[in-house]
């Protein structure tokens, strides 16, 4: 047997098991330990029982109580100031306080959110890279060829907010409700122009769905962004648009646009005098802009539940509700399973609408 006679050693051991048994022996020196046979030491260690595996099958073995041990990053796939960005920063600020680690927002805009989302979904599923997604995630999945599976490669955590779309018309258009709009469009097939933020954008698909459900035919005028679409509708260059309420709320309140109806189940607290589309006789038309938090595929369930719980508490705060309502939104919440169901349902819906509108995946 081999001994160290000139120096004495002490050894610390631990066993790490992941598909095979391996031994890590860290040695450091001291003058107080008796001689030790390394061969005997290794044999004794390997004969010890293997530590039990964690209850969930995943290479990242930690618990919700241990998480997080370092800063968390939330990737926002849109520029600063977008609804996903402002919502993400609110959530990041609140989570920083309760998690005890910095939660940082990183903007990665481009390609209608695909660039940032793809980067987040390719990150290790350890809870330290999350992403804000919105209903644009579902519409992009419906009209684009993606390098990732929009259902299989993501772990939805919680839906944070929802915001109804609103049918908004230029004030000069002689309609005040949905039925008058339908009658005008049917009397002038293909002559009413609706604006959108671009071909295949959520506002485009929302208007196409409205036309399909009401049996009318309108002319699509796509713009490179929602700002110019709103400006031209205000100016009367286009007749109407179907957009998230927050996009046009200030213009509706200023009388520059006329809100015909909101596309939600209930009236919005931001514009309580505006009826829902369902109240106007179209019960099967509901379109909302939702925002939520997600992570890569394989995110451990204890981490998902921890984040879901903390965000739920944030959504219950009065200050959060007031902040959301000021932008035409309301809190959502719910379980990860409910969020998954929402995403699946919307991707299927928008794929059907895209096919009916003749949009081909690009």
CA-CA gap between termini: 70 Å
Number of domains: 3
User: What is the number of helical segments per DSSP (H or I, 4+ residues)?
Assistant: 11
* Helix content, binned percent: 25-40%
- Give average pLDDT, whole number: 85
Strand content: 15-25%
Task: Write the H/E string, N to C.
Answer: EEHEHEHEHEHEHEHEHEEHHEH
The fold-level CATH name of the largest domain is D-Maltodextrin-Binding Protein, domain 2
Backbone shape: globular
CATH class of the largest domain: Alpha Beta
How many extended strands?
12
> Measured on Cα atoms, how large is the radius of gyration?
28 Å
Secondary structure elements and pairings:
Layout: E1 9-17, E2 21-29, H1 38-46, E3 72-76, H2 83-99, E4 103-107, H3 114-121, E5 129-134, H4 136-143, E6 154-169, H5 178-187, E7 193-196, H6 202-214, E8 219-222, H7 226-235, E9 240-244, H8 245-253, E10 258-262, E11 288-296, H9 301-315, H10 318-326, E12 330-331, H11 336-356
Parallel strand pairs: 3-4, 3-5, 7-8, 7-9
Antiparallel strand pairs: 1-2, 5-11, 6-9, 6-10, 6-11, 6-12
Helix pairs in contact: 2-9, 4-11
